[in-house]
Write a structure and sequence with these properties.
Helices cover 36% and strands 13% of the residues. It has helices at 52-65, 85-98, 118-126, 139-142, 155-167, 186-195, 229-246, 254-263, 310-314, 317-328, 332-335, 340-343, 366-375, 377-388, 396-413; strands at 16-19, 70-75, 104-111, 129-134, 172-178, 201-206, 252-253, 280-283, 288-290, 301-304, 353-354, 360-362. Bound molecules: iron/sulfur cluster (SF4) (2 copies). Residues 271-272, 277, 280, 292, 294, 326, 347-349 line the site of one iron/sulfur cluster.
Length: 434
């Protein structure tokens, strides 16, 4: 591993760390989980619990390193609630101890929801935790892969936990993974999340799971559980079609927010869509720091916070190179792509296929991203224009309804070999005429 050089000149003013206080330990056994296998990386006898000294060391260093008014801490797993409530009470105590004047501290915790109860939710509410809860859609879709250690379905337990969040008015959002089982059901998933889970903020994360023994980002094969590129694109279009009918300004879908920002001329905020990355790291229960949550692998270990400072590792040449490679390895096909301003080639972990002209390094999801970002071009331009003129982007709903009505008329008159009236540049028979 390259020597880590401290370089205050390149130190980011803020960065993000996903902390895994129980390492990869989880009470569920979701079939597509990329983290459960990490257990084998730890030495024998490891208890997988972050100790108090290490926790204090981390919180002190992390708060000191952030040069922003809002300092956000993120707790993840494995399953972080397996640490018990006292651990998080201590987290809050330590945050108060090291909080800088005129700053605000925020906590986000991602959970499968199974252990939530009145006590947890009273604590979350009292301390303003933002909770992310993982739900893959209605029961039959959620239970396809999200099972417990005995292989049993978990939907009912998760909904039970979700109800505690609602009961106590805890702020929450839903993280839904998109995979082979729910990928063809965007409408069912979206209406479920909106009307039953009653979430106002949703994230849809594609499952692109490598098929190998190591659990590392190696090889070019993906498992059959993975969503296909086309399926992911159609899933996002399906969600968009539902959202734009009545929910703009009421429900927030992360990728749509990112897109509106990009169409308005801002660089996306989500690492996967930025030109470079490297400011979203992962910290294990033992203090090991890794370049990214998706690269918790020996080759991407930057060091341990008990031996080197967090700031030093985040600013290291090694980490800078990790982030810069995202841009420098972009194939020509991406550099010339019409939606590059939004996509930037996506996450490097998924760049495992070849471009049509044979260059390595194209994103497995490319076909889906291309189709989706082109599909939303017209409404995004409309919304960005509304924003520029200080009008509500939600006006797009009336605009879209009108456009849909004229399109339906054009579809009814189109022949199979005509260019599709939707603007996709594909033949009608391969597009809306399918
Ligand atoms: S590798 Fe992917 S997930 Fe990790 S920081 Fe880069 S873009 Fe983000
Ligand atoms: S849509 Fe495809 S070609 Fe365009 S930037 Fe994204 S991955 Fe590259």
């Amino acid at each position: 591993m390259a020597e880590v050089v401290s370089s205050p000149a390149t130190a980011p003013t803020s960065f993000h760390v996903m902390v895994k206080p129980r390492g990869p330990i989880c009470n569920l056994d979701c079939k597509y989980c990329y983290f459960l296998q990490k257990e084998s990386m730890a030495p024998k006898g490891d208890k997988f619990r972050m100790g108090d000294d290490l926790l204090e060391n981390y919180i002190r260093q992390y708060i000191e390193a952030q040069q922003t008014q809002e300092v956000s801490l993120a707790w993840q797993g494995g399953e972080p609630t397996l640490m018990g409530l006292d651990f998080f009470k201590r987290v809050v105590e330590l945050e108060k101890k090291y909080q800088k004047p005129n700053t605000r501290i925020a906590n986000a915790l991602q959970t499968n929801g199974v252990l939530l109860n009145d006590e947890w939710c009273e604590f979350f509410k009292a301390n303003d935790f933002l909770i992310g809860i993982s739900i893959d859609g209605p029961k039959e879709l959620h239970d396809a892969y999200r099972v417990d250690k005995g292989g049993k379905p978990t939907f009912d337990k998760v909904m039970h936990g979700l109800n505690f969040l609602k009961k106590h008015g805890v702020e929450f959002n839903v993280l839904t993974t998109v995979h082979a089982a729910n990928g063809n059901h965007p409408k069912e998933v979206y209406t479920f999340l909106r009307d039953v889970a009653e979430t106002t903020f949703m994230q849809f994360i594609p499952i692109v799971e490598r098929d190998n023994e190591t659990g590392y980002q190696e090889g070019h094969k993906v498992t059959p559980r993975s969503v296909t590129a086309r399926q992911y694109g159609e899933f996002l279009m399906g969600i968009f079609d539902e959202w734009i009918k009545r929910d703009v300004g009421q429900r927030y879908v992360q990728i749509f927010d990112e897109a509106l920002g990009a169409w308005s001329g801002y660089e996306p905020s989500l690492c996967i869509f930025r030109e470079t990355c490297g400011n979203a790291l992962a910290l294990g229960h033992d203090g090991d720091l890794f370049s990214c949550d998706h690269f918790v692998e020996p080759n991407y270990k930057l060091g341990n916070i008990q031996e080197k400072t967090l700031q030093e590792m985040v600013s290291s040449e090694e980490q800078r190179r990790f982030g810069q490679d995202k841009k420098d390895t972009l194939p020509r096909y991406c550099r010339e792509c019409e939606v590059r301003f939004m996509c930037n080639g996506g996450c490097p972990k998924n760049r495992i296929i070849k471009t049509p002209d044979g260059e390595e390094g194209l994103n497995y999801l490319c076909a889906g991203y291309k189709a989706f970002f082109n599909y939303i071009d017209v409404p995004m331009r409309f919304m960005a224009n509304e924003l520029r003129h200080r009008r509500a982007p939600a006006n797009v709903m009336a605009f879209w309804a009108q456009r849909e009505a004229s399109l339906q008329e054009a579809f009814s008159k189109a022949s199979r070999n005509d260019v599709c009236p939707c603007g996709s540049k594909q033949k009608f028979k391969h597009c809306h005429g399918r």
